[in-house]
Amino acid sequence: MALTAPQADDADASDDLAVSRLARLMRPFVGVAVPATAAIAALLVGAVMLLSFGANPLVAYGELITGAFGSADNLADTAVRAMPLALVGVGICIAFRTDVINIGGEGQIILGAIAATVTSMAFDDVPRALLVPMVIVAGAIGGGFWGAIPGALKAYAGVNEILSTIMMNLVAFHLLSFLLQDLLIEPGEIKIQQTRRLSPNADLPLLPGGTRLHIGVLVAILVAVLGYLLLFRSALGMRLRAVGHNPDASQYAGMAVRKSVTQALAFSGACCGIAGAVLVFGSESHRLIGEGGAAAFTQNAGFNGIVAALFGALHPIFTVPASFLFGGMLTGGSDMQRATQVPAALVVALNGVVVVFVVGSLRLRDRLRTWAGEVSSYGGRA
To answer: Is the pLDDT of residue 9 over 80?
Structure first.
């Protein structure tokens, strides 16, 4: 009888060790398996939705993939669609890592576009090698200024940043409409809200290959790298993330919490402003257009960029491929809708299903990783 208790303890310890080993083996696969399973589940749900409208899911998904990635031109179109999403997404990463919610991407895109447009008009004779960087920097300044306003309101007046950034969107929409009805409108135009054809020296140069792809893709990659260096390889980034993790502890440690909040939204707005410059000077019209409602030229990048950032797990580098995939969904969705004759609203709903499943899976992945780490540590102590 005296040996029973030690044997039971040994059995429990052996079970704990086995569980901890299993947890250690699981950790590398959780990051891939959970989002992949969620994506498959989203496709199955989407297939049911397509069948309910009489469409063949295999044909629909085939058209989606072909329309997004089926040729060099399609790949270029997807990349062009993804550029503003990546730029906005990097800005969202910076804001969210500081625990600041930026819903004002649309307005910051517009202010960046306005600043870049005015710069192009004022310096239209400057050589392209100088004017292209000038309009991009002007876009960053315009968007950064527009983002800093709700940042300062939150930091120094306690104004909720969700409300203030949404209101700043509305102000930006009406400001653009006013400017295109009076100050910036093309001479001789009465009904069309657009500027004159902007300086060719400000056009973003096309990349080799004979497609629409331009250097905006390089700008997006550069901004993503700079965003990563800012957040994870600089003292400022460490302070921003510390404030986002625990503002009270950061304040107690002597960090300038209010300044950090303002800086985070300013940096976030700057990224969105660059997206505005890229949208104007990388477009085929090469002019700022306000026709079509709430600044149709933004392509809803201010909101879709939030989704891209969540797809990329709020990491600036991962946001770039996530934006490319999401851009492919948007580009290929048009071909799918034309081929299957399903309502356009269904295509939007399918995108939403994928977003909900994949973004939700990221939260589950993080919880599983935390559990695996705790179990493996417990087993190691045992």
So the answer is: no
pTM value is 0.86
Which residues, 6 or more positions from 368, have their beta carbon under 8 angstroms from its beta carbon? 26, 30, 34
Q: Who's near 149: CB < 8 A, 6+ residues apart?
A: 164, 168
Query: What's at 175, amino acid-wise?
Result: L
Quote the pLDDT of residue 1. Answer: 47
H or E, element range at 256: none
State the average pLDDT over residues 196-203. Answer: 85
Determine the pLDDT at residue 178: 85
For 299, the 3-state DSSP assignment is coil
Domain residue limits at 146? 84-299
Q: Quick check: is 382 in a domain?
A: no
Q: What is the mean pLDDT of residues 266-287?
A: 91
Return the SS3 of 345.
helix
Measured CA distances, 256 to 26, 62, 93, 156, 251 (Å) = 40, 52, 20, 12, 7
Q: 10 lies in a domain?
A: no
The dihedral region occupied by 374, where left means phi > 0, alpha psi between -120 and 50, and beta the remainder, is alpha
Contact 247, 45 (CB under 8 A): no
CA 180 to CA 297: how far, in whole Å? 13
On whether the CB atoms of residues 190 and 283 are closer than 8 A, the answer is no
Instruction: Average the pLDDT over 187-198 and give the result.
Output: 69
Amino acid at 179: L
Residue 344 included in any domain: no
Cβ contacts of 233 within 8 Å, gap of 6 or more = none
What digits encode the pLDDT tens for the residues 38-77? Answer: 778 888 999 999 999 888 999 999 999 999 998 999 999 9
Residue 354 lies in a domain: no
Residue with tokens 């356009």: 344
Split into its structural domains, the chain has a count of 1
